[in-house]
Prior knowledge:
The protein contains 12 helices and 11 strands. The chain is an alpha/beta fold. It has 2 domains: 2-96 and 220-249, 3-Layer(aba) Sandwich (Rossmann fold); 98-218 and 252-279, 3-Layer(aba) Sandwich (Rossmann fold), CATH 3.40.50. The strands form 2 sheets. A 7-stranded mixed beta sheet has the order 5-4-6-7-8-10-11, with helices on both faces. Helix 1 (2-10) packs across helix 10 and helix 4 runs parallel beside helix 5 (130-143).
Amino acid sequence: MEALQGGLRDLGYVEGENIVFRFRWVESVEQLPELAAQLVRMNVDVILAMSSTMVEPARRATKTIPIVFAAHADPVGVGHVASLARPGGNITGMSMLLTELAAKELEILKEVVPHAMRVGVLWNPTVPTHPDAVKAVESAGEKLRLRLHLVPVATVDDFDGAFVSMSREGVEGFLVVASPVTFSQRARLAELALAHRLPGMFGSKENVEAGGLISYGADLNDLARRSAAYIDKILKGAKPADLPVEQASKYQLVINLKTAKALGLEVPPTLLARADEVIE
Length: 280
């Protein structure tokens, strides 16, 4: 949100003077439809819905109020826009290629733990884009000759059981398909990974800053900042249907060497050389 507000300030918007924010925070996805309906009843000018999880209830709540997303994993795949070039409805914004990213993340995890034969995959059944991402991970797993153990995690209450399940199955590493809950609960995930001595691959650098081992993904702050341009254009009269969806241009590979040491892992020098950031 700081990045988004910074982007708007750069475009001349000052909170309380020429723009007003009405934030709605949720503890669970079940609350999203009602809070989206609240914003519609307030007749706001634009709804910012960060990812596909938030876009879906906003889409159901209104067909007229513009909706801008900042980090949608696959807007075409889940039907939130007709195409990237011509969104067609009242929804547009910034996208990251989660389906392709998730497969790439599995490849990188295999580089970090080359001996691994069995890998856990934490995914969220409440996220509209995750089924396609999981299919891509399964396809990548076949090529890498990995046996995957898929574990659904919809809420933080599922985390403990997920790690117990992975340990019981004898996984040698795990991949987290990025979702709002794994982002917001990044410290808890890092703690569990260390407690179970499992190397984990994440979708955002914030997970690694919180103690996770490694991440590869789009720069979420950059996406949020760039989404400010959509809000600016819409407030000046542009229609979302005419604003092409832009894709992330900055992807980051981040490695936490302190965590690697705690796990007794030696990160390959070739991977360290490719890293955008190394936390020591």
